[in-house]
Design brief:
There is one protein chain. The longest helix has 39 residues, at 42-80. This protein has helices at residues 2-5, 8-35, 42-80. The chain contains 3 helices and no strands. Keywords: Membrane, Transmembrane, Transmembrane helix. The chain crosses the membrane at residues 62-80.
């Protein structure tokens, strides 16, 4: 078999290229599904709402993290007298 004659780097490169090709095919299928014309089915709308909800939750977590960082940063500067 040809896979047995390949070196370590060649096998890793082939595995990586295969993974990339699979991921591209999956992304194309998803893009085609969500970009198709016509009426939106309930499953598609529910998936869109779920993605929007997850995005807003991650954005909220990021915002809270930034605010906490700024408060701690301001407290440290005040305590150390760096203002």
């Amino acid at each position: 078999m040809a896979g047995e004659k390949q070196g370590f780097i060649a096998r890793k490169k082939a595995a990586f290229e295969e993974a990339v090709a699979i991921r591209k095919a999956i992304m194309k299928a998803e893009r085609d599904y969500f970009a198709s014309e016509g009426e939106s089915d309930p499953r598609r709308l529910e998936a869109q709402k779920q993605r929007d909800k997850e995005f807003l939750q991650s954005l909220k977590k990021l915002g809270i993290g930034v605010i906490v960082f700024l408060v701690i940063y301001a407290m440290m500067r005040t305590v150390l007298g760096l203002w």
